Amino acid sequence: MPDDDDRIKPTEKQLKARRNRSIAIALALAAFVIIVYLGSLMKLGSSLFDRAM
Amino acid sequence: MALVERKYVDGRDGRLSEATAGDFIALLKPRVMSLVVFTAFVGMVLAPATPNPLLAVIAILAIAVGAGAAGALNMWYDADIDAKMTRTVGRPLPRGRVAPGEALGFGLFLSAFSVMTLGLMANWLAASLLAFTIFFYVVIYTMWLKRSTPQNIVIGGAAGALPPVIGWAAITGTVTLESLVLFLIIFLWTPPHFWALALFKTGDYARAGIPMMPNVAGEEHTKRQIFAYAVLVAVSGLLPSVLGFASIAYGAIAAVLGCGFVWYSWRVLKMDQGDRTMGPAKALFAYSLVYLFAIFAVLLLDGMISRIGA
């Protein structure tokens, strides 16, 4: 466990910037998931459902 | 309130990062990216195949992100010289908004991500071309040519000229003469565009130690080179019509736009040596942007009309 002296407290500006980055990463990942999902559907087409159960 | 151990803090000056998403978007060079997207889209529309619209949008996105990644890696490598030029001093790295390691990681990650996405969603020829474009821009142009030869932007221009070829390849899986003509137009357009800028930014480039043509060979030589390239640009702009993949109407408009390019370059050629305001060079720089956009916009319109008529 590190000493309290070894740790620093982020400023309001740093926390705000981190939150901004986190939201952007979340949105980018969500967009990527949607793109891959829809892209796969389009690319595979009907063959997606053409398999043995 | 979150506490962070010092060993995890960015080592530059003991501060946590204050970079916002906007700073990372600025690393992608959005203005360059918009031109890449536009020219790649024109390549796609002119290609003789009808793509799935969603897959075409994904391909465009991948090309845009790949171009942005190359921009981020360029800013990572060039942070030292960007800090010396008025045109680039406001970029995220010289301003200290983004750490070099962050820009490098961001650029490498997006490069791999964009190439893989294009390969999986379009085809591996297009993905290979995108990977080559990123490599050429970052390694051949940024790391090697930019600081070593006045021909830097002549050869390096190949990277900026490839997007329509990638767009074409993403749809057809081939590289053909038509797509290479689109490459040629942008390739020949790049030197007069950047040398016009270099003429009125010689101080910037001298401070940064970049051997741009006006700094190395002088203004008069640069003006002659600009004019020669302008003539070649005007001729290459006619090729789509001559080779039959654009209409006569396109050819007529391209001829007018090309004459404009030659005219603005002629004014630069005849510019008084003592003219420090560099009005004609600034006018050519502005017109060159209009020219490229207009040529590709007319090609796009022409391609769309011929598709509707087919």
Structural class of chain B: mainly alpha
- The share of residues in helices of chain B is over 70%
Dominant shape of chain B: flat
Q: Indicate the low-confidence ranges of chain B by residue numbers.
A: 1-11
Rg of chain B is 21 Å
Can you walk through the features of this model?
Chain A is mainly α. Chain A has one helix at 12-44, and one strand spanning 7-8. The relative contact order of chain A is 0.07. With 310 residues, chain B is mainly α. Chain B folds into 2 domains: 22-173, UbiA prenyltransferase (Tetracycline Repressor, domain 2); 176-304. Helices cover 74% and strands 1% of the residues of chain B. Chain B has 14 helices and 1 strand; from the N terminus they run βαααααααααααααα. The radius of gyration of chain B is 21 Å and the shape is flat. The N and C termini of chain B lie far apart (65 Å). The chains are: A mainly alpha (53), B mainly alpha (310). Chains A and B meet through β1 and α1 of A and β1, α1, α3 and α5 of B. Chain A: This is Protoheme IX farnesyltransferase. Chain A: Keywords: Membrane, Transmembrane, Transmembrane helix. Chain A: The chain crosses the membrane at residues 23-42.
Features:
heterodimer; A: 53 residues; mainly alpha; 1 helix; 62% helix; 4% strand; rod-shaped; B: 310 residues; Tetracycline Repressor, domain 2; 2 domains; 14 helices; flat; disordered N terminus
